[in-house]
Amino acid sequence: MAVGNHSQAVEEKAASRSQSEVNRKLKYISLAVLVVQNASLILSIRYVRTLPGDRFFTTSAVVMAEVLKVLTCLLIILLQKRLNVKQTVLFLVDSIVFQYKDTLKLAVPSLIYTLQNNLQYIAISNLPAATFQVTYQLKILTTALFSVLMLRKSLSRVQWVSLVLLFAGVAIVQVEQEGKKEASVSGSSNQNYTVGLVAVVISCLSSGFAGVYFEKILKGSSASVWVRNVQLGVFGTALGMLGLWWNDGAAIAERGFLFGYTGAVWCVIFNQAFGGLLVAVVVKYADNILKGFATSFSIIVSTVTSVYLFGFHVDLLFTAGAGLVIGAVYMYSLPKTTGGGAAAALNAKAGGVAASLASLRKDVGTEMEAFLPKAKEGVASLPLAVRMPD
């Protein structure tokens, strides 16, 4: 019997070790995918928006990305229902139509995400890819502020310091870029640095608010992330179509919805749709430290690639600003220490010493009781005059 239990314990330990190894590999895979997706999306949008010739309509690209996200989520839900179409349809009707009050809550973040996606195209069309990537990290600051205001979250001192460093790094990059007016931007009549900067700031504000609002909704219900993404996609597609009609309705009616679409444009749209769903998958295996590394490393990748693709010039001031941003992102991503870090460790150590002394006092008391003769019945026993040091 003992041999069987030992064998079972060994097998469970081996399985646990194997699962831990698999999770470790998935973490690094998730890190690599996140880095590639973050860097490639910025570079690809910058590339397709600076190509000569007919330009595609950004409003149609936003709508197409929303449609692809909805279709992907529907496919995942269908797979979860074991390809049972009837059960899937009934589930979606109940989640989206019958629980319409819950669905309407997603209208606000959906509107903001649609606005953010359009602003992202505007910003990257008017800013160098590396400058946009660094400045866009301001969304960490806006997310933190909205988290404190809306979710009553508390930030550690390290996180507050990292937010100050983040702001300083972005300010340095913007002063440097404003001072020399990047040739690739100022030399083109189609690009406006001020418009790009305003677009990225508004995008950061909308990203912070929408992210915190969406988190609040997710924590307040038991609906899955895929159902929430379908609800977001439904509103996002409708609002995107409204924006398309308002801004480019006449032009699209004349030239077509897919006007200007090339293979590179389709890659951008698929990348944007994939990025909207990637977080839900990566969070399962990657922690905050890995996500911080991925964001930081993607800035480096996009900056280095911009040097070769767009002739972007990296000088000392830009390097210093980008370095501050990368350090701030990493510091903000560090997990909080419970109980005040060193103080908590000292208290734990003191508690361990106290427990050891208490155990020693008990053992000595037991030995003394065994050594001394027991009191006779009817005679009170003398108090033990042995006191262990506290």
Automatic annotation (TrEMBL):
Pfam families: Nuc_sug_transp (PF04142). The chain crosses the membrane at residues 26-45, 57-79, 158-175, 195-214, 226-246, 258-283, 290-310, 316-334. Belongs to the nucleotide-sugar transporter family. SLC35A subfamily. One of its GO terms (molecular function) is pyrimidine nucleotide-sugar transmembrane transporter activity. Keywords: Golgi apparatus, Membrane, Sugar transport, Transmembrane, Transmembrane helix, Transport. It comes from Perca flavescens. SUPFAM superfamilies: Multidrug resistance efflux transporter EmrE. Signal peptide: none annotated. It is found in: Golgi apparatus membrane. NCBIfam families: nst. This is UDP-galactose translocator. One of its GO terms (cellular component) is Golgi membrane. It is a multi-pass membrane protein. Coiled coil: none annotated.
